Amino acid sequence: LLKGLDALRDLPAETPDGTAITLLANTGLLADITPGLSRGAQGIGLYRSEIPFMMHESFPSEGEQVDIYRPVLEAYHPKPVCMRTLDIGGDKNLPYFVFTEDNPFLGWRGIRFTLDNSSIFLSQIRAMLRANIGLNNLSLLLPMISRLDEVLEFKQLLTEAVLQLESEGYEIVLPRLGIMIEVPSAMLILDQLAEHIDFISIGSNDFTQYLLAVDRNNVKVSQLYSWFQPAVLRGLKSVVTQAKALGLPTSLCGEMAADPAAVILLMGMGIDQLSMSAYTLPKTKWVIRSIPQSVAVSVWNEVQLMKTESAIRQRLTEVLEQHG
Ligand code: PEP
Ligand code: MG
């Protein structure tokens, strides 16, 4: 089976009836580069920049960060690399910057933390822009966006970084800018956010957690955590439909992209791009190449009418068995 999956690498991620979906890799480690490329990733859809920060003993300097980001951009060049700015807080902590909160997932996390620590943020933005010089395959992604102000404040910092670097003699090309859709409020103001961004990436892990108000790491409630809940599926469909109308390219980069049953529904909703851990790419590609888009659309139409997670799962299992 594994051999069969490897043989998929050079085949397009295209349904039998001709719908292409871009498949990208999630990473945060240089060691993941080869697995991604060898499994046919068309780029990096999510570079989790907190991972190198978590592996350091103190905040990496701007120069150290350039040396971390540049090899990733180079390895994939000219394929696109989407680097997410620091997403610490929640369950992701830096050993050298400890703070405790009663509700860390609702607290000082992602863009909230970085906007409050603008010198750290500025050094990261400057490092990413410098790493991209002469390559121009970088795009930037902002985590945990819940309000428009966060995007606007970020853009001010970005402008500041660009002006500083240009005055230091660097030639900077502005990368494309995207936001994570993982806090439900972002879904409700997507039209307002859209004017200021180039693309979106749905973080299905947090989107599910925040929409259902279920801490996925708490065993007492983790059985309630499911992206097959009708409310989550409606939320996802709303994001995809709105984004299409607004002309925003849409990717999904949570674990859902590696769940074959979920991939059928995402195809049916009309998603453009999926990003996942390198090791799960072949499995997702296999689903895309096995199930016609027309089938995915009709399965999604059926599932939309279902009221329970168990009925939805059962139907998807049947479809997978029929096609595999
Ligand atoms: C997500 O929330 O789905 C996501 C991809 O981000 P992370 O898992 O890093 O929070
Ligand atoms: Mg997330």
Question: What would your notes on this structure say?
Answer:
With 324 residues, this protein is α/β, with parallel strands linked by helices. The protein contains 15 helices and eight strands. Helix 4 (62-76) packs parallel to helix 6 (118-131), helix 12 packs across helix 13 (281-290) and helix 12 packs across helix 15. It binds phosphoenolpyruvate and magnesium ion. Phosphoenolpyruvate (PEP) binds at residues 46, 48, 87, 182, 203-206, 253-254. Phosphoenolpyruvate (PEP) is lined by residues 46, 48, 87, 182, 203-206, 253-254.
Topology:
Blueprint: H1 2-7, E1 22-27, H2 33-38, E2 44-48, H3 50-55, H4 62-76, E3 81-84, H5 111-116, H6 118-131, E4 138-142, H7 148-167, E5 176-181, H8 184-188, H9 190-194, E6 199-202, H10 204-212, H11 230-246, E7 250-252, H12 260-269, E8 273-277, H13 281-290, H14 293-303, H15 309-323
Parallel strand pairs: 1-2, 1-8, 2-3, 3-4, 4-5, 5-6, 6-7, 7-8
Helix pairs in contact: 4-6, 6-7, 12-13, 12-14, 12-15
The structure holds phosphoenolpyruvate and magnesium ion (MG).
